[in-house]
Specification:
- The protein is 70% helix and 0% strand.
- Helix 1 packs antiparallel against helix 2 and helix 1 crosses helix 3.
- The chain has one domain.
- It starts with 6 loop residues before the first helix and ends with a helix.
- By secondary structure, it is mainly α.
- The chain contains 3 helices and no strands.
Length: 47
């Protein structure tokens, strides 16, 4: 699997956008990732 540069930073930035009231889909689109990818990244950060 290819590594994504600054994956953790992107995930945190998206989480901040969501906490600020922006939608999950809209936040993911700004970074060019799918919601499924975000949820996978979240799970990896929790492990």
């Amino acid at each position: 699997m290819a590594t994504i540069p600054d994956k953790d930073a992107k995930c945190r930035a998206i989480e901040e956008m969501i906490a600020a009231g922006k939608g999950v889909t809209e936040s993911c689109r700004e970074f060019g990732i799918s919601e499924k990818t975000l949820y996978r990244w979240r799970k990896a950060l929790q492990d």
